[in-house]
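Handout, section 4.2: multi-component inputs.
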Amino acid sequence: MSDNVLLMNKMTKVYPNGFVANKDVTLSVNRGEIHALLGENGAGKTTLMKMLFGFERPESGQIFIEGKEVKIKNALEAIHLGIGMVHQHFMLVPSMTVTENLILGDIPRGPMFTIDSKKAVETCIELGKKYNMLLDPQMRVMDLSVGGKQKLEILKALLHGAKILILDEPTAVLTPQETGELFETLKMLAHDGHTIIFISHKLDEVIQICNRYTILRRGRVTGTGNIESETPSSLSAMMVGREIDLDMHKQKTEFKEKVLEVKDLVYVNDFNKKVVNGVSFSIRAGQILGIAAVEGNGQNEVAEIIAGLKKASAGQTTLGCVDITSQNIRKRREAGVAYIPEDRMVDGCSATSSITDNLVADRFFKKKFSKKGFINKAAIEKEAEELIEEFSVLCMSKDNPIGALSGGNIQKVIVAREFTSGAKLVIANQPTRGIDVGAAEYIRHRLIDISRESDVGVLLVSADLVELLSVSDSLIVMVDGKISAYFPDTTQVDEYMIGEYMLGVKRQTEEEIGGALQ
Amino acid sequence: MSFTEKMRKTAIKYFEAIRVAFAVFLAIAIIMVVIFFVSDQPLDVLYWLVVGPVTTLRRFGTVIELLIPLGFCGLGMCMMFQVNRFNMSCEGAFFIAGSATAILALYLDLPPIIFPLVIIVVSALVGGCVTIVPAYINEKYKAHIVVSSIMLNYVLLYLGRFLLIHWLKDPTFSYNGTPFFPENALLTRIVPGTRIHTGIFILIAAVIVTYILLYKTKIGYNMRYSGQNAAFARYVGINTKKSILSAQFIGGMLAGMGGAIECMGIYQQLNWEVQLGYGFDGMLIAIIAKNNPLLVPVVAFILSYLRTGGDLVNRMTDVPTEFVTVIQSLVVIFIAAKSLLATTRHRMLIKDSMSGKGAN
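Output:
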């Protein structure tokens, strides 16, 4: 077990914008092990793997494969050296069949210029049998399940002779059952002498299947060793640099006056489908109301309608005691609506604008920052500096474009802007999706703080059930644009109960649902 | 911090300027290699191109004269690009402003100073009004702005020609031209021996006003947010449609001003029968100037210097003026090539982040 397959010695990579993604990173992997590469988003995991795969050139450092130093200039060379990568976003041609995708890049030739398709199918079946990952060779890739696509990616790498398999956050897209299957496969591959590098930030999974680990934080190695001697909290401490408090410590509180009331909201989309169909609920000051729903059941539209990005086809929205149904976005914001949008790169920020410009986009026109139409640059810069400080946004300069920041830091900028706009109602639409543990934890705490300390009503839409249950006070579940359940107290429910309502297996009575509108 | 480190930091900061200078140098170098093969007097070519425009006051005057219309159209295109709209109607706005100027100059009579100012204001409004057409169609009906603005340019070209030939022209001339404008409708020439006129001051004012508008006022912030990410601007409550349209209106106004000033300052009559190309040059200038109004006169100067030099090469040597167009194109290609000198910059950045506190 101890012979070294891969050694990346003191790798350093600086990106064109001056960001040091890796500094003196050493990764050593032994044959037949499943090695976890851990780190938050932006810690440099992907950069390290890109250098191994020839996508990025290191500034300094050496790579040894089986003890021999190699220079990897492109992906083809990496493949020849026996390195295979399974990307998070699959690199497959959806309109082609499983076999066709599999043989791309290594096509069995028939006579003349034809493809030996019989042999191709045979290869596909043979390979599937050998590694216990059987797929229908004639099926189109677009019809495969996500787990199936992933299997195909792994098979593709194996067909190209991969000895070292890199899996970039493989479980992010899988259901629990598929994850179980994948882990069986990985264990078997490792047993056969393949080496697996498992990139993830799900600590329980890592502990479940990995042998050793290397942890990166801000481009440097902060820990490496055997996984047996570690616990999730010791690993997360190394990832984040401090102990992560996974418990929210939420205090019970009395809700105050009503801040939001929506009545019989209806939204008909461009395809003439009623995406939101008669939704009514209310939120009080100090209350966090969560919406649980499977993707595409109208929860996103509800959030966007209240924020003003979409216009309701019918229904009434009242903020405090003001009817805002027909008001535009600016007026709603001035009345006290703040919104953290689902897609932060499209709606939440302007990637090419500076961090400062992003922070003040909703207030540069206010009296504090302008006089007779002219902008007071000094006041704006002061505001930006204060917000960066208060919300601990990690950046080199407030004048850099926001697009250069990591996802978590971009989200912090958005949160900083929306939480300080003097809102009575904060709508948080997937506020922690795809961002690192530290930033996610921070944002959840801020959500609770703002509701408790500033008497703000919060509407939380999230796909993360654990987050919904730990952060919100009350919860509604939506199916097909309708509310299917209302739970006034989230401490009385668990994920499985909610799951049944989310899938539409169960439905509360109209009376119970009516409780959402107090 | 050592001297070399400081130098490096400065170089990183002003890297774009260095890149532009390098692009110009490279373009001239490449064309010179060709000229060494085809011309009998290659050194003369280099002399007239590089030094020619400053050999006499008159020649340098030409550089400044040419800079004025280029500058106005560059500013106009900055406004379009700042709101992320490829509205190319500056060309047409410039052209039709000439017709407006001629009509006013010939059929109105006002005291000096006030007269040209009135003409400039009206022409600017005409320019704005024509530019808003493709802009509005684009916002309202999603018609592709490049197509509609180019088509509009043709409409304006033939409308202008129609007005000139059927109404404004003086039949006693051997060419299609209006009578010369009365004295009180002209812009005063300020440097004897050249045609440099008071339009230069209006350009300077326009540069400053455009810059302040874009970077220092609420209106400008609205425009720039709308241009950088319209979805985001809408989400923070900006009326993006209004901002995008008004920026283009102002862009057209600037081009229209340019047309009026050029007509009154240089031609002193209207005899334009083809598009003059300043609108397209303006696009080029705005791109090189990164849509920053303060850089527009600098880039316009480089361009008009190259053009004047090229003209001299044409007259003084055996190389025709077209080669300057080649130089221009090469400059634009090199500037557009974002990876040019990228490795150098990257190396500097690495050294910088390794030595200083850049590495976190």
